[in-house]
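pasting input
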Amino acid sequence: MSRFIKVAAAASAAVLALAACGGGGDDSSSAGSSSGGATVTDAQVDAALQKGGTLTVWAWEPTLKDVVTKFQEKYPNVKVDLVNAGTGDKQYTALQNAIAAGKGVPDVGQIEYYALPQFAIGKALTNLNSYGAESLKADFNPGPWNSVNSSGGVYGLPMDSGPMALYYNKEVFDKYKIEVPKTWTEYLEAARKLHKADPKAYITNDTGDAGLTTSLIWQAGGKPYQVDGTNVTINFSDAGSQEFQKVWQTLISEKLLAPISSWSDQWFQGMGNGSIATVATGAWMPANFVTSAPAGKGKWRAAELPQWTAGANASAENGGSSLAIMDKGANKELAYGFLKYANDGDGVQIRVDGGAFPATSKTLADPKWLGDEFEYFGGQKANEIFAKSAQNVVTGWSYLPFQVYSNSVFNDTVGKAYVSNTTLADGLKAWQDQTTKYGNEQGFTVK
Amino acid sequence: MTTTTSPVQASPRTGKPVTLSSKKRRKGSVLLTVLTALMAAYSLFPLAWLLINSTKTQDGLFSSFGLWFDDGKFALFSNIADTFTYGDGIFLRWLGNTALYVLVGAGGATFLALLAGYGLAKFDFVGKKAVFAIVIGAVAVPPTALAVPTFLMFSKMGLTNTPWAVIIPSLISPFGLYLMWTFAAQAVPTEMLEAARVDGAGEFRTLFRISVPLLMPGIITTLLFTMVATMNNYFLPLIMLKNPDWYPLTVGLNSWNAQAATAGGEAVFNLVITGSLITVVLLLAAFLSLQRYWQSGLAAGSVKE
């Protein structure tokens, strides 16, 4: 049996290796000239939409289904094949396999911001500047817009964004008379107080989550990743990363974190029954609360993220994704027409109505949207908090051009700090080393 | 997803005169009974959990004790109805796909194993030893290890994302071939074939009219093995298929399970559990209806006469 598992592991490693080939090897850039002016005009895109054709879109975002329906009503000659090829990294593996094989590549793919640089630098995506995407800059929030700018081009249109907030179970906080923390130091105090009052309750859950770790370092002003072309620096010893380590190491050492992984059924259960008291995550979370933790209805509220420096108002992004056009896809004019409709046109409102969190500046300033009262949050106008968070995202953050791989080894390295005597600092060091090694193997110069 | 039921052995008869030897034997069988009972409980435990939890609503799953029913709420029937109607009835489509893969894949694999195994057992030809070595070697290679090379090959042939990508690899069952081979070597007397030939029957007629009835237990056993393998096939369809319309139940249910894990995703754990129960029940039904042959087939080849 163990032999079988080893072989299976080797097979999945082979998939990852293939993925790597897709990401780094191909040097021929067939489409997407440099950042020069538009080579395809809006008129050409419109003509393609009228002429019609078939588009294959790989995405897992649930509200896109309605967008596709309305899009096909508006452009009856276009047939959109919306395929859920897996969520997150599962889809990336499938995508990279298809790219490596050269067949079965979709026209459009949903790609999260953290993964976009990897696909962009691997020349898997079309530079949208040749379609005049640069002129859309003002339509989007600066955070998501920066995220789709990579390797000197625009490689996707922002679909949603995840400015962070602290969601907390007010009922639990009231019951034990705990103040909603304004700083992470207060958060630590609240964690101690809560766990002491009810040993079954935890301030939050965490078993090691690369997305949360990088987002909190981002908020603390840390810039562990510096990317300049193929020259990359990874360094978790800057001040921001240290701040994060201090607080989180204490939470781990004092066993104040529930040993429950995010997105597991236990997680939803904990949010419903009060054993998980807060969740710090992106503004897209409310829809998940409603459908997956219905028992918490009316008990939860949103608040600004606790601060690393008292009195500051820094925020960060967590999650969020774009739609990108595959370099090997066919019918790119049509694909661009769909991207614009879904992420900048009528599609935005359809998705917001479906509970998605927008990336467009127009929606974020819309008084009607800001005034939305969230039933789940006891009638709170939570969008005001999210919009404020979106404006306060710390600038200058970038992800690695091999972040997908890096995040995949997070649990083997940093994850150890959550379950053994390994310190968070050692875990981060191991993560840095392993990522550095991989980056160098892929042809980057990593320091 | 394979679940085999192992019946608890009947406790040894009591009231027998207590001699030294029977005392010894009784001790041994009590231990054996306990061990068997433990194994039975161990195997049945997940099934019991599945059965209990398929009666709960999505809310009930989180708010009630995992090993007992949710008070006052019995949602099994609404769960079954929801499973078949959720997502425009995609579950039914997956069920049909699985049936297709099992019928064509496992059925085809059994037929090919029959032809090849019979041929190898009853005919002499050059290179038979080499074929034997290759088949034995192939038994040792787990299909999972071949999934990625197969994907790349099929991708070049333009077969990925089509049902063929799942069916064609399922047609090959080295273990089934080996089983048919050893079974045919013993179950079909060569003299009988010679008699048939003398009477003027062609080779195919001999095979289908004379040998196949004799080989029935072996065929059913091979069919069951390949059926279970095809029904449980997960990794191959996972990498081959991207279009949910062609998913088998395994991959489809997993996609339901994973869909909560994203912004705006909807958790349908109750449907995942109910869907799994339906899948298991189908496999159980196949097992129970073919069990007689299964047992006689398992013992085949174990004793040399």
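fyi Residues 77-299 of chain B form a domain with the MetI-like fold fold (CATH 1.10.3720.10).
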